[in-house]
Structure to design on (260 residues):
């Protein structure tokens, strides 16, 4: 069967996107999804995302990591899916969609940047050398001195597979402060099992974590990721973060067909 796919990337976090409103995609075939994400034998991507019909919202998001397993929320993927929905004329410049962590609202600005509302965050666990929180996906956040030369894959995998996070694991983010409201970060992503050029739920986690531990009082924070720049903003209440938004580019790269 011929499968039409669209390739999108959001600050270098790249995805295979498929219009599955007719529900033909073989979702149970983990190996097949991993094959489509393979950068040599397949299309290539950090993940694969299905756009599906939903009775109440504009569409439903189904997310798979490049290991072929369905996973938790993907912030950059969600932003790319909104841009894809516009290309398919499912929406204009506003979207409400359902994902594994609930309802999301998003807007596409005049500058083409996609702003995605993330879930509220009210459980932030601060330890001596790291912070842990869930922004739709689990994230370990840790400050490091020499971020540029830090071995992300080795050090990220050690924590992800270590005692801290058990079988479920976590995404691992390493951070350096640049100025009062700017941080640079690099992420080891669970389910990709490597460094990705950007992680949307990770950027959201870093911004909130840096505010919680007092590195910044800002509620709009710039995150320099390997693949570009993301902006995270939020309202800070009594130990709760609401109106959390992740904003950045989400760009169409190419489309094609592949035999599945
Ligand atoms: N690898 C993550 C999901 C994708 C997160 C990332 N691509 C993002 O933009 O949020 C996990 O399994 O928890």
């Amino acid at each position: 069967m011929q499968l039409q796919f669209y390739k999108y990337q959001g600050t270098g976090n790249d995805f295979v996107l498929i219009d599955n409103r007719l529900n033909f995609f073989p979702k149970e075939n983990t190996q097949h999804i991993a094959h489509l994400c393979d950068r040599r034998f397949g299309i290539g991507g950090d993940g694969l995302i299905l756009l599906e019909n939903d009775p109440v919202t504009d569409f439903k998001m189904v997310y798979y990591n490049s290991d072929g397993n369905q996973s938790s929320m993907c912030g950059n993927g969600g932003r790319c899916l909104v841009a894809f929905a516009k290309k398919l004329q499912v929406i204009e410049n506003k979207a409400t969609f359902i994902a594994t962590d609930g309802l999301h609202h998003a807007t596409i600005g005049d500058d083409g940047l996609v702003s995605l509302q993330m879930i509220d965050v009210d459980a932030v666990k601060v330890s001596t050398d790291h912070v842990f929180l869930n922004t739709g996906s689990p994230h370990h956040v840790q400050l490091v001195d020499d971020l540029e030369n830090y071995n992300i894959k080795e050090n990220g995998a050690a924590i992800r597979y270590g005692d801290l996070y058990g079988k479920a694991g976590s995404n691992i983010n390493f951070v350096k402060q640049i100025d009062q409201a700017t941080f640079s970060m690099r992420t080891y992503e669970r389910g990709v099992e490597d460094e990705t050029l950007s992680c949307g739920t990770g950027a959201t986690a870093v911004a909130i974590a840096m505010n919680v531990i007092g590195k910044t009082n800002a509620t709009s924070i710039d995150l320099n990721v390997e693949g570009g720049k993301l902006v995270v903003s939020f309202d800070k209440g009594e130990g709760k973060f609401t109106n959390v938004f992740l904003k950045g580019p989400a760009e169409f790269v190419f489309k094609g067909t592949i035999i599945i």
The two ends are 5 Å apart (CA to CA). The longest strand covers residues 2-10. The CA atoms of residues 132 and 140 lie 5 Å apart.
